[in-house]
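Researcher: Next sequence.
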Amino acid sequence: MIIQLFKKSPLSFKIGFFISIAYVIAALLSFIWTPYDVMAINLEKRFIAPGIGHIFGTDHFGRDILSMIMVGARNAIAVSLVAVGIGMIIGVPLGLWSAATRSTGGRVIDEILMRGNDLVFAFPSLLMAIMITAVFGPGAMNAIIAIGIFNIPVFARMSRGGALGLWEKEYIMAARVAGKGNAKISYEHILPNIMNLLIVQATIQFSIAIIAEASLSYVGLGTQPPNPSLGRMLFEAQTMIFFAPWLALVPGLAIVMLVLGLNLMGDGLRDILDPKLRRKEPDGVEAKQNVSS
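Model: Next structure:
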């Protein structure tokens, strides 16, 4: 079933899927093996251009760029995955609660929750990280907290918008007549019907979180030395770009390709999971869904 669905999926999804899987495999492999030790400093091998011994070259400390990309991708994926998870775990219940209270007459709670979301939206993740860092100091955990807080209102609004259109459906009314409360209806009936939207949004937010993590590391607020980070690799390479351009090009392209793969996969998932988007047959005739009478 899954294989057949993958074969029928759009080309954008397949390309994005394979790019994303390649990064995930490289990140997982870095736990047990990298071509060279990313912590080892060898000044005799500094600024080696990309070639056979070092595919992507070495940096100003003689560290292998490929090995650093593998570990940096691992850190970026881990930070983004946890941050998006925080956004979903907190944001989705808030959105469902807001939609449920509004549909049953509790507009005051809905307004309080939505205005709270607007307040969080007023502080970008970078500014929020700066404020958190001023109190707790820089680090990957603070980056996770900052990006995670920024993701909460995104998922809250997404789940609320999807849930509001379902509360007037007949099967929801039947569940209310059967004596089910708002929480049980939201969990058993609303959430499964908006899960497709949440999965697609999570993919998009994951790519945004990758960029946010790289940005925070670039300004020194994300992953701290000696752990490699794609954003900090760009920062360190900015003064050496004219005589060692690979130091900036390789991590920059790594970020671009990872984000591109996730965005392509998200667009493909939207086409696959959203029933409102009609797919067209190869001959140009719009495919029609079979509806049983």
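Model: Confidence is low (pLDDT under 50) at residues 278-293. The chain is about 70% helix and 0% strand.
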